[in-house]
Design a protein that fits this description.
This protein has 233 residues and is α/β, with parallel strands linked by helices. It has eleven helices and five strands. Helices cover 49% and strands 19% of the residues.
Length: 233
């Protein structure tokens, strides 16, 4: 399975039980192939999100053929269980930590009056032209904000290496792969389609609607490979 870039995330939906509603997590894998075609590859409905469940899901993909020979980058939101599972199944593949999730975490460590300015200046890191300039931008940002909010700086610093892996990708696609937004957009479509239902009868009903949404998106994307990929050759 020639997947070049791999996004992983989960969406929470509810099912009915005799004791009220219960949350179910659907683990989803989204890939961009070497020829630029996008595909929502697989999903699995689970009781909750954990390292063991993510590892089982990724193992299933590995057995199906996604062994990672041409896999260049895996984008995740930073949840520890998912991170550990990826390390176990694809230890050789670079990880990209989602900038959107990370900056929300940074904001949680800031005083309200500092949030807008600090986050705005942090964006200069991923907007740099190359990795060297990004490191320089980070040092400038960290020097200024360490005195005002050392916890916010440490929050970004501890994952800096993974946050900068985006610079190993072609410049034209960096905006797409620096966050999990592409898979989040697929989730928004799933939520839009399921909102009138509010709660599903069982796991099978979740599987049917998720399959329908993912199939619809795959059909929509099949004839529209990403231009940046098709031009690389």
């Amino acid at each position: 399975m020639n997947i070049y870039i791999f996004f992983l995330d989960g969406i929470v939906l509810k099912t009915k039980t005799g004791y009220g509603s219960k949350k179910k997590v659907t683990l989803v894998a989204y890939g961009i192939k070497v020829d630029g075609r996008r595909e929502l590859i697989d999903f699995m409905v689970m009781g909750h999100e954990s390292e063991k469940r993510w590892e089982g899901f990724l193992s299933r993909l590995y057995i199906r053929g996604l062994t990672g020979e041409v896999l260049g980058l895996i984008i995740t939101d930073g949840k520890k269980g998912l991170e550990n599972a990826v390390d176990n199944i694809y230890p050789q593949v670079k990880r990209q930590r989602c900038w959107a999730h990370k900056l929300r975490n940074v904001a949680n460590n800031l005083k309200r009056k500092h949030i807008d300015q600090c986050i705005k200046e942090a964006r200069s890191i991923y907007n740099a032209h190359n990795r060297k300039e990004a490191v320089t931008a980070y040092k400038k940002w960290a020097t200024k904000w360490k005195a005002l909010s050392p916890k916010a700086v440490r929050c970004l610093e501890k994952d800096l290496e993974e946050l900068l892996n985006v610079f190993y990708c072609p410049k034209e696609i960096r905006k797409m792969v620096r966050t999990t937004n592409v898979i989040e957009r697929a989730f928004r479509e799933a939520r839009r389609r399921t909102r009138p239902m509010s709660c599903f009868n069982n796991t099978q009903s979740i599987e049917r609607i998720v399959y329908a949404v993912l199939s619809h998106l795959n059909d929509k994307w099949r004839a529209k490979p990403l231009f940046e990929f098709t031009q690389r050759s």
